[in-house]
Amino acid sequence: MRWIGLLLSLCWMAGQGEMRAESATRVELWTDQSTARPGSTVTAAIRLQMAEGWHIYWRHPGDEVGLKTRVEWTLPPGVTAGAIQWPVPDKTTEKEFDTLTYSGTVVLLVPIEIPAGQVLGPITLKAKVRWLECHEECVPGNATMETRVTVDNLSEVSVHLAEIQSARQRVPRTIQDLPIRAVWEASEGVVPRKLVISWKPGSGVSGFDVFPFEAVGGVAPVSIKTEYLDPQNGFLRIRKTVPAGDSGWPDRLEGVLVAKGAEPAAEPVEFSVPIVAALAGLATARPEPVSMAELLIKLLSAFVGGLILNVMPCVLPVLALKVLGFVQQAKEEPRRVRTLGLVYGAGVLVSFLVLAGVALAVQAAGGTASWSAPFQNPIFRVLITVLITLVALNLFGVFELTLGGSAMQKASDLSSKDGWSGAFFNGVLAAVLATPCTAPFLASALAFAFLQPPLVILLFFVAIGAGLALPFVALCWEPAWLRFLPRPGVWMVRFKVAMGFPLLATAMWLFWFTAGRLGESGTGVLWFGLFLVVLAMATWVWGEFVQRSTRGRGWAMAIAALLLLAGYFGFLEGQLDWRTPAGRRVKGLEWQKWSAAAVEQARREGHPVMVDFTADSCLNCKWNKATAIEIDATRARIKELGVSVFEGDFTDGDPIIAEELKKHGRRGVPLVLMYSADLAKAPELLPVVLTPSIVAEALQRAATR
Questions:
Q1: 282, 302, 326 - which closes a domain
Q2: Are residues 419 and 272 in the same domain?
Q3: Are 564 and 639 within one domain?
Q4: Which helix (H) or strand (E) element contains residue 592?
């Protein structure tokens, strides 16, 4: 910091200080009182004014970028400074990073406590402010300021009182009983964890966000990035990610709640609430019962889904035959036919009640009120992707889902009996045979069921069963209606195939979601994709040469089994750690720590050199590395040309790196230099924002002597 003596004197006389002229941020220190009584509180105001296009950061700057603005006080003995009172920041999304920033002008307020026994007379308040200012580049800044306050028995306000009072209005007030809750969504052992935040607002509010405070003591930080969820029972909901921390997981959520859509805008408030486990949150996840209208709509949808099942190839061809069989059993007696039809319907309903029981058991075992929680389990993600892929292949006719020989024979024997028992097991058998066709609907049913109380789950599955059973019962009630049934034909097969396309889309989404989190450098897409291809080939062999052929079935079974084993052990187990995936890991370049001597040595050895001066808090640095440097094409080119890569870490403001930046006309990062192996050539400075082509061309120039 370079101060001019006269200016310093004037600043002291005016009760303020200013930082160096070349910074993009101008800083002043004020107080709301020029004279204060012993035992009183003086509000100090640190006013930061940024040049156009520049910004500094809030107390929680962002996920992996930015630096918190800090204030260090030097005060007389007995005088103490309180915590900074932060105005609400702006949330901005630059590239792929969310940050919380201030631009224009911001005033940070700090209460200064003067002890009751303070000696009368002037006291000096000294503050050192550190910040990171960013535009296209990020530059650390600091300023040391002093101001004087006279301690006397009579108080006197300062000329800055009005602006300080205005700044106080921008600080969110604290609410103790805010109707907000935070519930862990992920199960134990899943990293990162997911936190669902629910808030019940007043009228006129269409959404909200939470700006979490910074993590302290090594506790895992709550992400700035927000995922907006659908409202539930009058509560607005968002989801935040919480990565692992050195000292464990947070037990409270503290931050600022900002409402959206209110006219006038709802006042931002500061809050602190405990974070509860998913099991504990289950009891409070539905603070209000599902409305009757919503419940009826969902039950109607389930009923219609059951009706649609009747036109699937696994149901419609046998529908008329079963009704005619009942008519023949009853010797044309209408009452008997109707009774058998009702018993058949009971068999269908019992089958779906069994499925409802399975759903209840899974819900109870999972202890979670969120259908998305299982998707945070890597094993579940792989298995559900495989399952949906198999069901899609089944609907496309690659193979058929049927009961095994002995099981099918027993079911057939039961359903072929006369009387009530035969009718009942006919209904059970119909539900079982319809299973391959019900998969698309059961997926939606389970998604809804996991969020509902037990009674609603039972009603939902009963509605599906009722839809499946109704046409049969109606035809038994009036067999003459059989003439209105559409004739079985090719259209049924086409309808079945058409139903496979939505399922195929689901399988593709699951593959994208799952494969991206397996392996390194995107290899999960390759190996998991190959596994699914081999799986599809095995099912084709099974369907074509085992199910539809009588010759060579033994060989076909062996080939299908070998394909499955080869795919599983060769790709899934052999190439991927699929049970505990490491996420989207990218095996990056082998960066060496920068030093001028190391760069010179590499050039003397005949290597072109790329130097990346970066910082953890630099948004553009991360963007450049992710989109132009740490990509397959650039890594391959660097390896091909024999380029040595060095990284200079400016996160902590290394003075040697600062001097190097200054030598190249920069005050901050990013700075990427490309050196030729020819020591006589000066380095090439790359632009602040990089593209793959810019880097590739610069590498080629550096490699050309």
A1: 282
A2: no
A3: no
A4: strand 592-593
Q: What's the domain range around 323? A: 292-378+401-497
Q: Give the domain CATH number at 202.
A: 2.60.40
Distance from C-alpha of 587 to C-alpha of 265, rounded to nearest angstrom: 46
CATH number at residue 65: 2.60.40.1250
Task: Give the domain CATH number at 697.
Answer: 3.40.30.10
Q: Which amino acid appears at position 68 of this protein?
A: K
Which pLDDT belongs to residue 127?
Answer: 96
- What DSSP element (H or E) covers 378? helix 378-395
563-608 tens-digit pLDDT: 889 888 887 777 676 665 444 344 568 889 899 989 998 998 889 9
> How do residues 351-382 score in pLDDT, each as one tens digit?
888 877 876 776 565 444 333 444 546 676 78
316 neighbors 401 (Cβ within 8 angstroms): no
Q: Which is it for the CA torsion 497, 500, 501, 504, positive or negative?
A: negative
Instruction: Give dist(CA 280, CA 259) in Å, integer.
Output: 26
> Which DSSP string corresponds to 273-316?
EEEE-HHHHHTTS-SSPPPHHHHHHHHHHHHHHHHHHTTSTTTH
Instruction: Give Cα separations from 242 to 30, 568, 586 (angstroms).
Output: 38, 33, 21
> Are 174 and 57 within 8 A, CB to CB?
no
Based on the structure, what is the number of domains in the chain? 5
**Same domain assignment for residues 229 and 374:** no
pLDDT tens digits for range 46-67: 999 999 999 999 999 987 778 8
CB 656 within 8 A of CB 613: no
Residue 295 has pLDDT above 60, yes or no: yes
